[in-house]
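Review box. Two proteins, two foldings.
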Amino acid sequence: MALLREGLFAVSGLGGILHLMAWDGEKQQMTLVRRIGCVPVCRGIGLDREGNVWWHAGSWKWTDRPDTPLRFGVNAPGYPGVAQVVMLDNDSMAAPGEMWGKPAFYHGPLTGEVQGQRVDQGCGLKKDRVGCAVYKSKGALTLLAINEAGTGQAFAIGSDCRYQRDLGSVALKPAAPVKAWTSLAMKEPDTLLGAADGHVVEMTRDGNDWKEARRWRADFGAAIWFAADAGRLWVADRDRHRIVVLDLATEKPLAVFGTPDKPGADLAALSGPTAIAARGERAVVYDAGNQRLVRLSLH
């Protein structure tokens, strides 16, 4: 904390991001005035139908300015944050992570304080999870979390996305070796999509596991991240510095954001985009090269 002038302080915040805070003498408390700083790391983003955006340990409204402090702050997950965030139909989010050295499941609607559920015993969630998807298995709402190697763990969750119990290991079975998986999405109840080495890998159920059925034809770079909603697949193409929106049924492109193969820092450009969330005609992407979150809209 540093005193800037009487009643105004600079305070280090989440991830080293600075905040300006004003001292209210009557209430005897600090009030957040402005957020200063970038988004240094991001593996998961939440986005609901109202346009509320969740990152790391709090949320913003769709219309908030870049300097707006996070709303509804909660205890932050351990570095590097939560894995891919999944939004249920009821707009409740589910995201596995770690809190104070223990497995944790961040859950709830983005219109208020998201809950960080720390599980002290009996949960085998590992720290290296990256991609997540939610589907039904044997009557249970199931959260699947995978690491880059494609090793998965399944967890039973409630309709509010609270962790209930472990369901065991789940394997992804590609037809050809994969160097790194990054994200997951459900195309249909029995069809899982995985982002792997720049490919969209379509998988069907194989007992408790998922086996590759086919790969989409696409001209992506070496690493992609994606999110699916409302019949569309939003693909963050890191190495080609663009977002491609595909029709889930036809696999044809509907829109492109950013200039392909040309990184940039203005509002029309992207630089190495990775984690992405989509809801309806909106999406939010982590523009990693510029350390910022970028809002996208089809209209």
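Next protein.
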Amino acid sequence: MNLTPELDNILQKVREVAVGYGLDFFDTIFELVDYNRMNEIASYGGFPTRYPHWKFGMEFEQLSKGYSYGLQKIYEMVINNDPCYAYLMESNETVDQKLVMAHVFGHSDFFKNNSWFSSTNRKAIDTMANHGSRVRMYIKKHGYDSVERFLDCCLSIENLIDPYSPFIKRRKEPLNTHKDKDNKPVKKIESKQYMDSFINPEDFIESQQKKLDEEKAKEKHFPEKPEKDVLLFLLEHAPLEKWQQNILSIIREESYYFAPQAQTKIMNEGWASYWHSTIMTSNILVDSEVIDYADHHSGTLGVSPGQINPYKLGIELFRDIEDRWNKGKFGKDYDLCEDYEALRRWDKGLGLGREKIFEVRQIHNDITFIDAFLTKEFVQSQKMFTYAFDRGMGTYVITDRDFKKIKNTLLFNLTNMGQPFIYVLDGNYKNRGELYLKHRYEGIPLKKNYARDTLKNINALWGRPVNLETVEDNKDVLISFDGTEYKEVYMGLRK
């Protein structure tokens, strides 16, 4: 539904203010929808249509019940696309529509300019619709149950990608060598027949031939190096039918599209919140809307004990960066100053804050954002802490307020988007065509039921036994699934 004349006038004013602040966003198209359509779009991950699968229906049912019972309400929905599409719920008050518009322009600016989104598909709406059409075609041809079962397997491993691969060259270019080159024997030095045994000793020739055979066998080992993009490995080597390959490639392509959003959740929401706050207080609000705006804004930035609110952490960190660079609270002189009172009053009047946050918005993701700009002073001012569950008390309790521990905990939870590191080590384990995976243990064990279900689904794709090396109770463990039963073999204590 098109916007009403009133909302369209508001939109033009909000856009004008956003541009005046230097935001550079895609052309942004707003659509007015009812709550039912908004929940449907949200269940599809923000897209008007996707391929058919029960998980979308489950998400829609959950959102619909949450809205009906007054437990949750979706205020904004925006898609990383060119042009950028955003949705307004028609039942929202005018002040909420203004806030959503300002928030969306912040997101659109982030999508367009943040480096981690630079390799994403900017025509994602068309691509998702095409993916849906292809899957429906396979359902018609192969049956709904067969396609759904295969989708279940693929979706269970959709996180097993390498999110940094669009920016890093992982593989060597193939060499233009002749196939018969590997079959050539070791070269001998030309000699007279009676001198051959001295110039080309038999034991030397045999050792060189053995070395050549070992190098040739090593070249045939795959993958040559541990492969983090498990989906790509399966696409290249699993015995899949053509329609199955296409579906797996769809899941992989969509996983890479969504990956930067998981990598920049704190920054993205913080940036959008910073700008909706700035824009809304720039003659966008009328007097009668101030209280409602303050109430809804504070609700967005509310903090629940023991939880990280990405909106709150992101906006406060951007504000802190702006303040520090405005006052010159950075550099060698500031870092080496030990006078607390001097640090408190420090203000060189540089006015570089706004320029700096635009720079930060362009080059960082959540990990580098936290690592570079989370300071001890910020942690203290925001009253941050680490927590753990106390079994004796039956509740969560504060365990530490130490800056380094808080920062390390944040970085640990953000690494690899909070997912376990899984690599393919061998696609021909024991020379029997078995798949050998390894979990890079970082101190948190895998959930065994999840690991077993994942192995079962990978086995369905690979068609041969699948093995996963992991750690349990400080012991190296090999979990295997051959298609019918699971086996666990303890490989010894960790060193």
